[in-house]
């Protein structure tokens, strides 16, 4: 057994104190700390926050030798109890690491708990002490009254902890208890409404994977916990095997006395849906390369388009399937997703397989050229899920729902490869569709979504894109250029990231939307922009797009006025599951 004691002793300086005890260590015992956390594909170097590492054996201080950035060797004897102690700085408000202040605490054990090498398969026992008055502990890790118990190190680091005076509520789905913990909520927060909305999502997803009224032992967890940190600004989530850590604006939470389903709440529910779906798709059903994690280095796979992209396809789909939003609201969300991908030049440069493999160097390290050189395996992967689902349905064979369940049954909820995904598609939709899927994954072509949606009575239309997008600009603060899209009028004019837009056609600019006011009617498509760049003022000529409806486009999906009965049936089967 490996024992950890996490102490809260210094909230003012944001430090956890950690003790690790081994009753019977190996001689020259090795220890290491993960450099990344599964689900977030970037080397984050958690060991940079560790300090004051000491080792003791038999009351004597034992020498520790650092072997690399995240690995140490103790100069101990075999068999005699060994204790390590150290501090961890915790001031990362994201869901990926650790945080501690007078208001709340949070940690992923991957940030705090050293791995005793060679002892990973043993029970890992963790306890928390020094909680301020009124604080509680929230986690899905089993608790025996004194300790939190993990069967092995993998299980330990897959269970985040929330600490503080938070709100908590519960509901059940198919006999499985679900707990929702919310830190930082406003006084008007309607917890009961959030519980009911989350319950409907969870019930729909359990039925998706296991059918109605499944046996308790068929579900992948005995208990599930949502840990939500409500903040002023911030958004994201990280999946775990029986819990998820979420962060969202507190103003997006449902409010007492209001039945409004605003965009912020819809986005939050989509996040809840996304992370819960991961309980099956990536935490159990996962890339073959992730059968065993290497915590010391990057773990590469070309399959994030499936595990993140298809999860992104289903997250908002389950909002309509569970009755939380209607068809029109869902098509509006889908329109935004399609428009975003079509407005990204990088989709013609990087394939989905490449985007998955290069997540470690590109997706999590965006810069001014990111839209021109990369594509999101989340966003385009979701559209691939849509294209595959509609292709299967249109051919009258099956659906993506059946592909997902087939893969789950085939792998017994375990690792799979691209070949197995293609085989499942071929068995349900034919070898030609499987070949098309492979081309979509490894190529750069846009998906034929308009023709796939038409038989379902969904009309593909266009509307005027925002002026910045039509010019090929993404702005940061004020009129500061953040990104310039390749092939756009702005790129042709020589605009660069970092430029400040000062004036247009001799008129001082206050906001970009004022540009149409300054157009010369004799040459309505020509602009002369004064631009500030590195203490110089430049005069750049830019030509406006001839049409307000142009590439990049803003897609507008709607239900056709006179859709045939068969189209309505197909659409209801798709959106109703």
Oligomer: single chain
The tally of strands reads: 30
State the low-pLDDT regions, or none.
none
Number of helices: 16
Fraction of residues in helix: 25-40%
Mean pLDDT: 96
Widest beta sheet: strand line-up: 5-4-8-2-1-12-14
Summarize, please.
The chain has 16 helices and 30 strands. The chain is an alpha+beta fold and 577 residues long.
Give an overview of the whole structure:
The chain has 577 residues and is of the alpha+beta class. It has 16 helices and 30 strands. The protein has a 7-stranded mixed beta sheet. Strand 9 (98-100) and strand 10 (104-107) form a beta hairpin. It is globular. The model has no long low-confidence stretch (mean pLDDT 96).
Keywords:
7-stranded mixed beta sheet, 577 residues
Secondary-structure blueprint of this entry?
Elements: E1 2-10, E2 15-22, E3 30-32, E4 50-57, E5 60-62, E6 64-68, E7 71-74, E8 82-89, E9 98-100, E10 104-107, H1 109-112, E11 115-116, E12 124-129, E13 136-138, E14 148-150, H2 153-156, E15 161-164, E16 167-173, E17 176-183, H3 191-210, E18 224-231, E19 236-239, E20 243-249, H4 263-277, E21 286-287, H5 304-321, H6 327-342, H7 352-357, H8 370-373, H9 379-394, H10 400-411, E22 415-416, H11 418-429, H12 431-442, H13 449-453, E23 458-463, H14 467-471, E24 473-475, E25 481-484, H15 489-493, E26 500-504, E27 507-508, E28 526-533, E29 536-543, E30 554-559, H16 565-576
Parallel strand pairs: 1-12, 17-18, 18-20, 21-22
Antiparallel strand pairs: 1-2, 2-8, 3-7, 3-11, 4-5, 4-8, 6-7, 9-10, 10-15, 12-14, 13-15, 16-17, 19-20, 23-30, 24-25, 26-27, 26-28, 28-29
Helix pairs in contact: 3-4, 4-5, 5-6, 5-9, 9-12, 10-11, 11-12
């Amino acid at each position: 057994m490996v024992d950890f004691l996490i102490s809260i002793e210094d909230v003012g300086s944001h430090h956890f104190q950690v003790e690790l005890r081994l009753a019977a260590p190996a001689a020259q015992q090795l220890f290491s700390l993960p450099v990344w956390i599964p689900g977030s594909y970037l080397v984050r170097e958690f060991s940079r926050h560790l300090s004051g590492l000491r080792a003791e054996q038999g009351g004597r201080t034992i020498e520790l030798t650092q072997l690399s950035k995240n690995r140490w060797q103790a100069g101990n004897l075999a068999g005699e109890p060994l204790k390590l102690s150290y501090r961890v700085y915790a001031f990362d408000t994201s869901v990926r690491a650790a945080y501690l202040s007078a208001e709340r605490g949070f940690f992923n054990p991957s940030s705090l708990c050293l791995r005793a090498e060679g002892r990973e398969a043993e029970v890992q026992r963790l306890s928390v002490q020094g909680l301020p008055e009124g604080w509680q502990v929230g986690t899905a890790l089993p608790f025996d009254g004194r300790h939190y118990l993990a069967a092995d190190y993998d299980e330990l680091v897959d269970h985040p902890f929330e600490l503080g005076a938070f709100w908590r509520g519960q509901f059940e789905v198919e006999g499985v208890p679900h707990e929702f913990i919310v830190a930082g909520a406003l006084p008007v927060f309607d917890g009961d409404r959030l519980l009911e909305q989350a319950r409907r999502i969870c019930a729909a997803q359990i039925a998706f994977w296991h059918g109605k009224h499944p046996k308790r032992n068929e579900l992948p967890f005995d208990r599930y916990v949502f840990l939500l940190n409500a903040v002023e600004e911030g958004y994201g989530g990280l999946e775990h095997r029986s819990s998820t850590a979420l962060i969202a604006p507190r103003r997006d939470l449902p409010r007492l006395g209001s039945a409004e389903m605003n965009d912020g709440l819809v986005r939050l529910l989509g996040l809840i849906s996304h992370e819960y779906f991961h309980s099956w798709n990536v935490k159990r059903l996962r890339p073959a390369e992730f059968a065993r994690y290497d915590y010391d280095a990057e773990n590469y796979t070309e399959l994030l388009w499936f595990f993140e992209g298809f999860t992104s396809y289903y997250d908002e789909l389950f909002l309509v399937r569970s009755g939380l939003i209607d068809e029109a609201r869902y098509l509006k969300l889908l329109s935004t997703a399609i428009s975003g991908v079509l407005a990204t030049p990088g989709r013609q440069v990087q394939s989905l397989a490449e985007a998955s493999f290069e997540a470690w160097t590109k997706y999590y390290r965006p810069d001014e050229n990111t839209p021109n050189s990369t594509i999101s395996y989340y966003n385009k992967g979701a559209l691939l899920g849509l294209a595959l689902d509609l292709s299967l349905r249109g051919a009258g064979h099956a659906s993506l729902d059946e592909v997902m369940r087939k893969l789950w049954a085939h792998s017994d909820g375990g690792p799979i490869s691209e070949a197995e995904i293609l085989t499942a598609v071929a068995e349900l939709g034919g070898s030609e569709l499987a070949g098309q899927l492979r081309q979509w994954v490894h190529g750069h072509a846009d998906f034929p979504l308009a023709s796939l949606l038409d038989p379902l009575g969904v009309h593909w239309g266009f509307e005027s894109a925002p002026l910045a997008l039509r010019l090929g600009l993404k702005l940061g603060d004020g009129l500061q250029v953040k990104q310039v899209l390749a092939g756009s009028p702005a790129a042709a004019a020589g605009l660069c990231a970092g430029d400040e837009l000062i004036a247009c056609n001799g008129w001082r600019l206050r906001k970009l939307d004022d540009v149409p006011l300054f157009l010369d009617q004799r040459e309505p498509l020509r602009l002369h922009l004064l631009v500030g760049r590195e203490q110089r003022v430049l005069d750049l000529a830019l030509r406006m797009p001839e049409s307000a409806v142009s590439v990049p486009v803003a897609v507008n999906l709607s239900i056709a006025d006179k859709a045939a009965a068969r189209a309505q049936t197909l659409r209801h089967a798709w959106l109703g599951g």
